[in-house]
Amino acid sequence: MRGVVGLFVILGAGPLFLLAQQPAPALPPINPAAARLEQTITGLGGPGFCLAYHPVRDMLVAGCESGTLHAWNKDVLLSIRTGSGTAQVQSAHQGAVVALAWGGGPILASAGSDRKIHFWNMDEGKIAHSATIDAPIKALDMSGDGKTLASAGEDMAVQLWDTATRKPSAKLVGHKDWIICLAFSGDGKQLVSGDIDGSVILWDVPGAKKLKDLPTPPSPPPKETPSKFPALALAFSPDGKSLALGSADGNIQLINIADGKVVRAIPGHTSAVTGLAFHPSGNVLASCSKDRTVRLWNPANAQSFKVLEGHGAWVEGLAFIGQGTRLASVSADQTVRIWDLTEPAKK
To answer: Which of 252, 284, 314, 344 is positioned for an S-S bond with 279, CB 3.0–4.6 A?
Structure first.
């Protein structure tokens, strides 16, 4: 496959590693209860399956069933450019793009149904390396510093990768069924993986070892084994103390990492939860579902801030963008929607 050199390069972005080391600015105020649709971006050419966002570059990338990557820069995301939000498009995989991951560095990872993982050097706008995987990949995630990639799928193991060398490192083994979701903690030292059997494992990344099963089984054991549903979405809170787990039954659980216990349940979705994301402040949890909605929650009390409706098919992924002032969602309806979380201007 031929890459298009410079396709995704952002002019004037400057040395990414220097930008990443600067102190993070204070987050702008938001009002999640007033969240509303800002724009609908069309032109995906097929169902959208996944999203990745880089906060320093302010670039959003969507992976599609058509095997393409679509990227939008800041001017589109903030509605400065009108119309359909024309994307930079790159052919990526011979089959659907099933997962994307982008940490704090220049490497974006994409996984396709063609059993390939591409490591894209976004400074150059082309593929730096491709790896062919024996078993289909279902999930990717990358540490916040962009140095470690995790991939997992039907081989029931989590493979860690060094993004600088693009070579595999440790393999984490412990699941007994397909792994379909992954999430790094903010500091990159812990990783959680969830499988189709409903099992979730917390891993120590530097030590490449299992820490515990989540949630921790109650003691003494219940008389009956509780029903387990496939774990479809995972997200660490920004402080690394909590984990949000979304399941195929539409429920969300908040788990305390320290003791592995469920802190609270968040019911509301009427179908499988397909994506989760914490606002950078940790004060808002966003979820999306096959019920075609995006929902905003208060993780402190499990109360709903807002239900965002409008997608015409399953919502497959989401990401907070623009320092958390907006939320992007991608759907099988072939659109990306941008939701504004700021306080509406007074008339």
So the answer is: 284
C-alpha 335/C-alpha 4 separation (Å) is 24
H-run or E-run covering 20: helix 16-20
CB-based contacts of 275, cutoff 8 Å, min separation 6: 233, 246, 286, 287, 288, 315, 316, 317, 318, 329
212-260 pLDDT, tens per residue? Answer: 999 977 655 555 555 579 999 999 999 999 999 999 999 999 999 999 9
Place of tokens 């150059």: 124
**CATH code for the domain in which residue 97 is found:** 2.130.10.10
pTM here is: 0.90
pLDDT in tens, 113-158: 999 999 999 988 899 999 999 999 999 999 999 999 999 999 999 9
- Cβ atoms of residues 289 and 250 within 8 Å: yes
Give how many domains the chain has, as a whole number. Answer: 1
Give backbone dihedrals phi and psi of 324, rounded to 5 degrees, phi first: 85, 5
Work out the angle at residue 339's Cα, subtended by the Cα atoms of residues 334 and 342, and round it to the nearest 5 degrees: 170
Q: Considering only CA atoms, which of 112, 100, 92, 106 is closest in space to residue 164?
A: 106
Which three-class secondary structure state does DSSP give residue 16? helix
Over its C-alpha atoms, the chain yields an Rg (Å, rounded) of 19
